[in-house]
Amino acid sequence: MAAADQEPPVSAVRSRSYQDESYLPGFLGTVGDLQKEGVFQDVVLEVEGRRFPCHRLVLSAASPYFRAMFTSDMAESRQKTVVLQGLDSGMFGEILSYIYSGTLHVSLDKVQPLYQAADLLQLDYVRDTCSSYMAMNVERSTCVDLYNFADVFSVDTVLRRCVEWININFAEFSFSEEFSSLSVKQLTEIISHDELDVKEETTVWEAVVRWVQHSREDRLHHLPSILPRIRFNLLTSDDMAAILEHPLVREDSSNSAVIRNVVQKGNPNLKPRLGMTTEMVLLSDVNSSDLLFMNPREGKYISCSYNRKDLPRDTDVTVTSDNNIYVLTREEKSSDQLFVFKYNHAENVWEDVGLPSVSKSLIIRLGNEFECYDRHLAEVDQTLYYLAEHKKQEVLMRKYNRHTDQWQECSQLQLDNNIYEYSAALSCGSHLYFLTTTEVHRYDPSQDRWCKRSGRSPLPVPNREIHTAVAMGTEIFCTNFDFSQTLVYDTVSDCWQELQGWSDPEDRETNRTPILFVLENRLHIWFTCNYDYEDDEEELLMYVYDRSADTWRALNATLPDKEYYSYGRLCHVARIYLPYLKVQHKNT
Asked: What angle (nearest 5°) sits at the alpha carbon of residue 282, between those of residues 276 and 283?
């Protein structure tokens, strides 16, 4: 038999690799035993006079700090005893226990020095675990202490959690001893937050008064620098008069004139606080240029009229994370030129924000081939994205660069299948998602990259029909035309699940596409229907989803007797300062 015809050796055919699942735990346990028994130790680390015999190899494997120390030309690489500065001996003992066992014990009384030691020794797991532990334990008694620590050591996750807790609990927190202990810098930063959950600005003023009076002689001179952070433009004339007559203002002759000037002048550009606003759904009147701002849960329905020429023709709408409302609109004389309008909350008007035409660069590039089937406007991390379905299997995208004032080209999306009927483009977390009836794609802005998601389904979902979609938390909800099938896509697990659809015992027919929206962190839907197609009487129905019972419950909402439609295929919800809606604009 020729050499080429010979069979390969049996060993080559049957070769494979095996993973010993018990090897790493057993290895680590053995290393820990060697440390306890004092065997093969080749270096002593001295911290605050306390000596810790160790193994250079183990330390180097666990920490880049020790790896650099023992593998470089540093003097410590040749020393039998190395003195470590800037460490607490007790915390270093905890660190050493983790290095040799993989187990970390954390408590409130030692988490901060443990974090400092881990940060110095470049132990990422210990540092991240400590920061997560601190973030989970932010409460009234710990908030200021953790806030101070996070501020000094730039622990962003803890700092954000402290700020979030203070914003939510400001009204109660402002009466505490912890609040009185804030530095002037911290106080000024806190009362500058738009996210303070206060119903009236007088709550902020009264908190400042308590803070000053806690140590009046030391703090009174700070008042002129603190007051500009108070939003006097949101106060009533009676509240302003009461403040000007307050003893802190009236009796302080040295600062009285300055304080009075700050109070009376105010800053008209400061926004209302979060707690002063109300979540409102935006709907358009079919037969006029009216907009309805509604919150059916609170029974609030406010209709505003605008000049027809001032109300942009909507192609798509997005409400950004910082509560700005943008409308993608087209010129009256051009079907191709698209511009972005922005809602001015304070003036209750829609304004051309002066952005260049979002479609101009695409028209120049594609020429006669520029024909879009659908357009979307979305936002991720305060950056606007425009998506155009150019062909049935191609989606082109641009993002607005604020620094260059230009729409910048992004990675385009190539679909596997043609787009039929409806697609959805919406942000969820720090990513952008594009959904069709057969595909889910995710865009990562940091990488400028699209990736197709598998969209695994643990349940039999025969037809993932999408007529309306909305994001809530880490999930995307969608439903079909007749609201018979509601689905939820978990962006974390990349899985679809089927929820209960609408089942009406009176067997009414929907005659308008259902529209999903999220109001006060609960999933809602509204649509019009009648009992049969020959019946001219339409009924607008609104439901809220009960996740625990997997059922839709009727929401008894009484809307004004008009025919409404939503901007796009979902109801957009924004936080509105209701006094701003008093500015009315009549039709012409």
From this structure: 150
